[in-house]
Amino acid sequence: MNWTYILCALTLILYITVAVFWLIRSIIDTVDDRRQAKENAAWEAEKKRLEREKTERDKEYHEARMKELNLK
Questions:
Q1: Environment class of residue 6 by beta-carbon count within 10 Å: exposed (0-12), middle (13-18) or buried (19+)?
Q2: How far apart are the two ends of the chain, measured CA to CA in Å?
Q3: Can you tell me the distance from the alpha carbon of 18 to that of 12, in angstroms, rounded to the nearest whole number?
Q4: Other residues' Cβ atoms within 10 Å of the Cβ of residue 52
Q5: Burial of 35: CB neighbours in 10 Å, binned 0-12, 13-18, 19+
Q6: pLDDT tier for residue 18 given thresholds of 50, 70 and 90
Q7: DSSP line for 16-52
Q8: Nearest alpha carbon to residue 33 among 41, 45, 44, 22
Q9: The pLDDT of residue 68
Q10: What band does 70 get if pLDDT is binned at 50, 70 and 90?
Q11: Residue 26 in 3-state DSSP?
Q12: Average pLDDT of 21-44?
């Protein structure tokens, strides 16, 4: 065996290792992105629901306050 063959083999092994790492990292990132998108969608839905409930409570409070002021 000569040095050229050894260096070529090491370079090929390094390239394959980097390619496999990149492939695995891409798959993991894709899965994480989808999970994060689902969590964000659920959070946004909950946030909208809470905002609607707060708006309804504020409206009821305002109406009750106006009735109270009109009675005085």
A1: exposed
A2: 104
A3: 10
A4: 10
A5: exposed
A6: very high
A7: HHHHHHHHHHHHHHHHHHHHHHHHHHHHHHHHHHHHH
A8: 41
A9: 84
A10: confident
A11: helix
A12: 96
Tokens of 70: 């009109």
Q: What is the spatial distance between Cα 63 and Cα 71, in angstroms, rounded to a whole number? A: 12
Global model pTM greater than 0.70? no
Is residue 1 predicted with pLDDT exceeding 90? no
Name the residue with tokens 């409930």. Answer: 53
Question: What is the structure's pLDDT at 72?
Answer: 67
Q: Measured between alpha carbons, how far is 50 from 42 in angstroms, rounded to an integer?
A: 12
The tokens of 28 are what? 């993991």
Helix (H, G, I), strand (E, B) or coil at 1: coil
